[in-house]
Fold:
Amino acid sequence: MAEILFGGVNIDEFFLEYNNERSGGFEPLRFIKPGHQKVVLGLVTTKNGELEDPAQVKARLQEERRSSSASTRSALAHSAASP
Structure:
């Protein structure tokens, strides 16, 4: 499904929720078109009043980097994190 969504739609930017275990892994991001699409990773939740541990947010970013291909890492160098 990710290949169809990221590879087949004419969308420049995706805002994706990655703030809990249910959100899954970052593997589908490998289908992002480098240089054509941007990703905003929702790593911080707005669903409760608790602040995330900054070390855990950093660990999730590093996890995303490890699971992405080299071309996707290049595209994600211009990505953002958001609640």
Remarks:
- The two ends are 24 Å apart (CA to CA).
- Helices lie at 2-8, 54-67, 70-76.
- Strands lie at 13-17, 38-42, 80-82.
- The first strand starts at residue 13 and ends at 17.
